[in-house]
């Protein structure tokens, strides 16, 4: 049974009994009236969510289970853009077995986000909509932003794309503290709730000043909603929100970009998680799996390298410094033992205290550019694309492309910039791009070298078996 227990203003989440997967009734020593008036108690609950999102073992209890960053990594390994050199941890994602209902990994996201949705519902039940206290408004705003984002992640994994599938089944919606298992809501119903949550959160967070970017503020909520609008085809709204969200975040310089993406204080980091050595569960961490240079981790120590797809590497301009984030076919003098195409993007010099960066302002440039291009304002699309690309490639000139060629250029630059950051597979699914790993000269290993046509059922995760067993109202996705 999964329960939320609030004791001495701290949040503890206990997990067991998979057969009672979503049977959750919060138990608290704080009654509703006390909770509604206590900023400290509610802040402790929200901080518990942030902690859970970077914690080990709260979902499937293996070395792929370290919170939100693990889910971003797993889905990226289902894309065209990343390969793993050996079959090991994450191979179930890489070979698409993770999406099957009987595979443990099918519930990594389900049993990460739903317990946190339950926790946001505790906060939202305690803080009324008409609250006037500034601290409680900010806490309610964070809870709404997180709930909206968690549903967005679930919808994109366990449901179909939005456009053209509005009346198809998505995921169950729970907006109250205590609940019985519900049937799956439609795509429209889920996205209506997501928009409602995020729009309200943006208003509530208007004056909230966070201590650091471990917390969600208004700009992060705006970034969430910009991504949602892009998924929904609300392009004009997506472009404006993406532009607004990135406004206060400077772009990284070449030196800053090449530092390894291990420090959440990077100036373009919008949202992330600070990790200390005391909090680290090193082998169950992002850098253990993705830092090819660290001999203490799975990637660098056991040769389970995470590399860039050869076709994508070849599409990076030779004058673009981001190409140096990968070992060239001729090798790398600093890391002579690493194979061609091995990533040097993610390096944690602290060994066991690398932070998790969930969201960077760089992503907003590509949402803005694509959204403007699709809404008929190609001049602004080209300007947004130029503004970021010229800082990566000094030889870049303003695009002369138009129509689908311009959109393809934007998506290519997005794939290069955000490689390994959790965008590639979601964009493939949204854009109807096939999985193409079995091509002439492919550097994907045999266990991952296969193709899947666009729109195939394999781009949708099945509902986990534990939820099927516990909730008779659930209708399963096709195999």
Describe this structure in words.
- By secondary structure, the chain is mainly alpha-helical.
- The protein has a domain at 3-211 and 451-470: Serine Threonine Protein Phosphatase 5, Tetratricopeptide repeat (Alpha Horseshoe).
- The protein is built from 18 helices and 9 strands.
- The strands form 4 sheets. Strands 2-1-3 form a 3-stranded mixed β-sheet.
- It is globular.
Seen as an oligomer or otherwise, the chain set is: single chain
The radius of gyration computed from the alpha-carbon positions, rounded to a whole number of angstroms, is: 21 Å
Helix content: 40-55%
Number of strands: 9
What's the tally of helices?
18
CATH topology of the domain at 3-211 and 451-470: Serine Threonine Protein Phosphatase 5, Tetratricopeptide repeat
Q: What class would the helix/strand composition place it in? A: mainly alpha
Alpha-carbon distance between the two ends: 28 Å
Order of helices and strands: EEEHHHEHHHHHHHEHHEHEHHHHEEH
Kindly report the spatial arrangement of strands forming the biggest sheet: 2-1-3
Strand content: 5-15%
CATH hierarchy, class of the domain at 3-211 and 451-470 = Mainly Alpha
Shape: globular
Mean pLDDT: 93
Helix and strand topology:
Layout (H helix, E strand, L loop, with lengths): L2 E5 L2 E5 L12 E2 L3 H6 L1 H14 L15 H9 L5 E3 L6 H4 L15 H17 L7 H25 L28 H18 L13 H15 L2 H11 L8 H4 L11 E5 L12 H5 L7 H5 L3 E3 L1 H6 L40 E5 L1 H13 L3 H12 L13 H15 L6 H8 L3 E2 L14 E2 L12 H6 L9
Helix pairs in contact: 2-5, 2-6, 5-6, 6-7, 6-8, 7-8, 8-9, 8-14, 9-14, 14-15, 14-16, 15-16
């Amino acid at each position: 049974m999964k329960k939320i227990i609030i004791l001495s203003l701290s949040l503890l989440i206990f997990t067991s009994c998979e057969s009672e997967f979503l049977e959750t009734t919060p138990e608290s020593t704080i009654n509703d009236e006390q909770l509604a008036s206590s900023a400290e108690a509610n802040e402790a609950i929200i901080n518990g969510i942030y902690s859970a999102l970077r914690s080990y073992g709260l979902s499937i209890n293996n070395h792929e289970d370290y919170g939100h960053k693990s889910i971003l990594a797993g889905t990226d390994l289902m894309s065209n853009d990343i390969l793993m050199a050996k079959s090991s941890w994450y191979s179930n994602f890489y070979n698409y077995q993770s999406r099957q209902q009987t595979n443990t990994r099918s519930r990594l996201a389900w049993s990460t986000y739903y317990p946190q949705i339950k926790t946001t519902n505790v906060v939202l039940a305690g803080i009324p909509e008409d609250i006037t206290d500034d601290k409680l408004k900010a806490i309610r705003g964070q809870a709404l932003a997180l709930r909206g984002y968690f549903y967005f992640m679930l919808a994109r994994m366990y449901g179909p794309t939005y456009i053209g599938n509005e009346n198809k089944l998505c995921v169950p919606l729970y907006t109250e503290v205590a609940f019985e298992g519900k049937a799956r809501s439609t795509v429209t119903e889920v996205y209506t709730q997501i928009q409602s949550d995020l729009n309200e959160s943006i208003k509530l967070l208007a004056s909230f000043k966070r201590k650091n970017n471990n917390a969600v503020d208004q700009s992060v909520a705006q970034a969430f909603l910009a991504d949602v609008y892009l998924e929904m085809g609300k392009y004009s709204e997506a472009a404006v929100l993406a532009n607004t969200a990135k406004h206060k975040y400077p772009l990284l310089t070449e030196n800053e970009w090449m530092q390894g993406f291990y420090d959440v204080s990077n100036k373009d980091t919008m949202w992330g998680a600070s990790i200390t050595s005391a909090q680290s569960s090193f082998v169950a961490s992002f850098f253990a799996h993705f830092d090819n240079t660290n001999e203490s981790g799975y990637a660098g120590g056991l040769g389970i390298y995470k590399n860039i797809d050869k076709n994508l590497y070849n599409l990076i301009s030779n004058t673009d410094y981001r190409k140096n984030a990968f070992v060239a076919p001729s090798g790398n003098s600093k890391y002579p033992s690493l194979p061609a195409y091995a990533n040097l993007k993610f390096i944690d010099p602290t060994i066991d205290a690398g932070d998790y960066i969930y969201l960077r302002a760089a992503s907003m440039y590509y949402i803005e550019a694509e959204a403007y291009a699709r809404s008929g304002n190609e001049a602004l699309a080209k300007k947004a694309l130029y503004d970021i690309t010229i800082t990566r490639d000094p030889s870049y000139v303003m695009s002369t492309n138009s129509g689908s060629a311009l959109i393809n250029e934007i998506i290519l630059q997005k794939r290069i910039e955000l490689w390994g950051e959790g965008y590639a597979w979601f964009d493939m699914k949204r854009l109807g791009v096939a999985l193409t790993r079995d091509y002439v000269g492919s550097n994907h290993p045999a266990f991952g070298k296969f193709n899947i046509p666009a729109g195939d059922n394999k781009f949708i995760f099945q509902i986990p078996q534990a939820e099927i067993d516990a909730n008779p109202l659930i209708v399963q996705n096709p195999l």
